[in-house]
């Protein structure tokens, strides 16, 4: 569920806030259980109170979003130093799971929905991204720069070659989502050697509209494609700008009220224009 928090990750400038946020925000990994819990509470507020996910009774009682993967993941946080330097300052989060760790603990979260067999050769150097969300007051370009700078540092530190995760479109009616699903399938389908596939019992077709509806060579089709892209969740558009692909087949996630696709990003195809941009922007070079 890499992008269930897609509405929570809009990168618009708001009220000229980004300059102030840029100076105040820090991205780093959670240092203790209290900071992880702060990330879980933020996830609960965004996914279950702001959006349409349905919590379990245990989650509702604790006001936390949690699962078995939290214990084995690294938790990337964005903190506002004006609020403190611990749990009270957490305003954004991403959950990170390396392939070597997943292999020792039953696999990736994404494998509950997708067959990742095509990625077997890259598994040890694969990073799964998930549970992305940002507090409503901090949905600015500056926050996203901090998050992506943190991910870039993590990728370089662990020699990650492939990133993946479940990216979500709002709603469970695949017919209503046909333009978006078809566009992703026809224009951004992963090459066979990097292509996840929805598990047979969960598989929903994505090629619901013919490919000529999105043909780059046709002016009207190009206009339709641009309109579809404009309506995609901001985080999904961000992954596509990084050169991301999607797997074959979608999965309906009734708990979160979304339709998931598996996004795959080959790190060696991410240009300096993006990853290194975040490092330069924040003075990391």
List keywords for this structure.
single chain; 285 residues; alpha+beta; Aminopeptidase; eight-stranded mixed β-sheet; two-stranded antiparallel ribbon; 9 helices; disordered N terminus
Indicate the proportion of strand residues: 15-25%
Mean pLDDT: 88
Sequence stretches where pLDDT stays below 50 over 5 or more residues: 3-20
Structural class label: alpha+beta
The sequence of SSEs as H and E is: HEHHEEHEEHEHEHHEEEH
Itemize the secondary structure elements and their pairings.
Blueprint: H1 18-24, E1 25-29, H2 33-50, H3 57-62, E2 74-80, E3 90-98, H4 99-104, E4 114-115, E5 126-134, H5 141-157, E6 162-170, H6 178-188, E7 197-198, H7 219-231, H8 234-241, E8 245-246, E9 251-253, E10 258-266, H9 275-281
Helix pairs in contact: 1-5, 5-9
Give a short synopsis of this structure.
33% of the residues lie in helices and 20% in strands. It is of the alpha+beta class and 285 residues long.
């Amino acid at each position: 569920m890499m992008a269930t928090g897609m509405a929570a990750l809009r990168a618009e400038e708001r009220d000229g806030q980004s300059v102030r946020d840029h100076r105040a925000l820090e991205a780093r990994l959670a240092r203790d259980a209290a900071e992880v819990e702060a990330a879980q509470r933020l996830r609960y507020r965004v996914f279950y109170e702001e959006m349409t996910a349905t919590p379990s009774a245990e989650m509702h009682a604790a006001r936390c979003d949690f699962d078995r993967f939290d214990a084995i993941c690294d938790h990337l946080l964005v903190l506002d130093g004006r609020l403190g330097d611990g749990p009270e300052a957490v305003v954004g989060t991403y959950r990170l799971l390396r392939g070597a760790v997943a292999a020792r603990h039953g696999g990736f979260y994404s494998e509950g929905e997708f067959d990742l067999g095509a990625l077997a050769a890259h598994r040890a150097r694969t990073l799964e991204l998930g549970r992305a969300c940002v507090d409503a007051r901090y949905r600015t370009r500056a926050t996203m720069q901090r998050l992506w700078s943190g991910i870039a540092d993590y990728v370089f530190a662990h020699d990650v070659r492939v990133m993946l995760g479940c990216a979500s479109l709002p709603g469970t009616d695949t017919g209503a989502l046909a333009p978006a699903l078809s566009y992703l399938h026809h224009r951004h389908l992963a090459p066979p050697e990097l292509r996840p596939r929805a598990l047979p019992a969960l598989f929903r077709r994505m090629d619901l509209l013919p490919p000529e509806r999105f043909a780059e060579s046709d002016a009207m089709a190009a206009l339709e494609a641009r309109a579809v892209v404009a309506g995609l969740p901001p985080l999904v558009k961000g992954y596509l700008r990084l050169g991301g692909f999607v797997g074959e087949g979608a999965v309906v996630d009734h708990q979160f009220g979304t339709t998931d696709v598996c996004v795959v990003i080959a790190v060696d195809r991410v240009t300096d224009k993006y990853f290194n941009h975040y490092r330069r922007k924040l003075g990391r070079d």
